[in-house]
Design brief:
It is built from three helices and ten strands; from the N terminus they run ααββββββββββα. It is elongated, with a radius of gyration of 33 Å. By secondary structure, the protein is of the alpha+beta class. The chain has a domain at about 30-175: Jelly Rolls (Sandwich). A hairpin with a 5-residue loop joins strand 3 and strand 4 (about 85-90).
Length: about 220
Amino acid sequence: MRKLFPGIFIVVLSLLCIPYVIAPEAAPEPSLMEIFNHLGFTNVAEADVETFLPGIYEVTLYAEFAGYNEENELGYYEVGTSTYNVIFYGLEGNFGYTDAPITKEIDAPYVFGLSLHTPEDHRYFTQHSNNGDGEQHSIVYENLNDPLMYIVGFENIWGAEDRDYQDIVISLKLKTPEQVIPEVPFGTILIAATMLIAFVCFVAYKRFRRPQIVDF
């Protein structure tokens, strides 16, 4: 019986240690809709938007549920070009919800899109046709409580494997639209110029005309 005591002791000790040896199961990541609800964006609608009008915008980073969030870079670019301006570097945020939302301002005097660059040297666009794998890597929502705000989620896996679109979640809010000078048709300008010349000639004629004096 005494020979069994060491074995029983080891078994009991092992059972007591099991809860500390087995790693707890990781909590599942929230869906994009759950993120919206957490942030207070409860009145949204998916928008058929891939590019954005010129103007000054506030861009706010809210969350990054991406495996390599520290290396992803979010930027913007003029449509039709390949010049990318970084808005957020990977180290500026953190995994999950940002400790505090980070807001920056961009001034884009042209129609632009957003892009996400990953450490695998893939770049994904809000313009779906620009994506090298032919997949949709972003989804845009309108904030129906604020018509000047869009909320954008990106998928950063090649092939859009899980399509959760919460690898990076940002908002884009228009502050000042770009001032556009309206074009005036040439015909309108010509008519206006002709009328002005005619008016000036009439005034000059009336002003400098002298009455004729007749002698009897």
